[in-house]
Amino acid sequence: MVHAKDYIIYKLTGKFVTNYSDASGTNLFDLVKKTWDKNILETLRVSPDLLPEPHPSTDNAGGITPEAARETGLLEGTPVIIGGGDGSCACVGAGVVSEGNAYNVLGSSSWISLASTAPVYDPDLRTFNWVHLDPALYTPCGTMQAAGYSYNWYRNTLCGDEITAAAKKGKNPYQLLDEGVSEAVPGAGGLLYLPYLLGERSPRWNHEARGAFVGLSITTSKKDISRAVLEGIGFNLKLILDVLEHGSTAKDDISKIIMIGGGAKGSAWLQILADIWQKPLAVPTYIEEATSLGAAICGGVGIGAFKDFSVIHRFNTPVKTIVPNEALAPIYEELFEIFNQTYDSLIDTYHRLAEFNRHRVKR
């Protein structure tokens, strides 16, 4: 049983290996000892013979075999560095390579993670842990399902006029939506958006949860709705941020968050997140390519081209910082409380709707 990249490594080198970061996502791995957990394997009746040998991400799995060289055109003997999972590569690409630093990937899904010298165990099981590309570190993490997906759904479903207008002006529809977001009042006129279009992973772990707008009124504008979508994602990510910050082994609170992913191109959204989280946000040079850059750095460390992962600071430096508006903190603190209360109030409704849909399919 191997991950996709590990199968490619096997075909290139003949070695049956994986790395600590991917292994830590299997629920079969001892995060501290960095070995397959015998008790878990025995309980689940999984033979250890089925599992690849775990290694640090920077280990050399071996050289390209003669057969692989013939099939690929790669030079025989070229070292193949094992690499890591996408989250751990993103962590390095964002520049989070020392304890206490944090980052957020703002893509179709979204996650917040940080670097820590020990796993962060949440007693309410809202977050989880990966091993960093640096085997001395961990990346405690929480991932929500529909971040950019929510804004994309909103654009495609409710913003036909903006799509048409943008095409005529030669603009991206998101540019027009962002203009409306910036003009709307913080708090979206009391409108809340719950971003559960795909159910939810961390921190809710509720596959029955669904999206909702709560607080619509006769005075609600399109600009309010646009802003509410982005604020709702920000509230949901704040749940993850709070768990990680309160459970972190770092000596101080998280002082800033590095932003990567396609959503980090939107200045209106970044300002909303900074205001909800009350954290400065740093935007590096490469935001969409950060994960691939982290993988490249891992390869460089593995072959000795780079001394360690701190070299990322040469390649992906911050280009701007978004500072939170402290005056908005009370507004967003109150709305965050209402956001959570709203979710709790809808849990039974989500379950009944799921039952309704199951019965309807049977009928």
Question: Keyphrases for this structure?
Answer:
single chain, 363 residues, alpha+beta, Nucleotidyltransferase, domain 5, 2 domains, 13 helices, 43% helix, globular
What does this structure look like?
This protein is of the alpha+beta class. It has two domains: about 1-85, no CATH class; about 85-290 and about 305-363, ATPase, nucleotide binding domain (Nucleotidyltransferase, domain 5), CATH 3.30.420.40. About 45% of the residues lie in helices and about 15% in strands. The protein is built from 13 helices and 15 strands. The strands form five sheets. It has a seven-stranded mixed sheet with strand order 9-10-8-7-13-14-15, sandwiched between helices. It has a two-stranded parallel ribbon with strand order 1-4. Helix 9 packs across helix 10. It is globular. The model has no long low-confidence stretch (mean pLDDT about 95).
Brief synopsis:
The protein has 363 residues and is of the alpha+beta class. It is 43% helix and 16% strand.
Low-confidence runs (pLDDT<50, min 5 residues)? Answer: none
CATH fold assignment of the largest domain? Nucleotidyltransferase, domain 5
> H/E order of the elements?
HEHEEHEEHEHEEEEHHHEEHEHEHHEH
Estimate the mean pLDDT confidence. 95
User: What is the correct CATH architecture of the largest domain?
Assistant: 2-Layer Sandwich
Number of strands: 15
- Major pleated sheet: 7 strands, mixed
What fraction strand? 15-25%
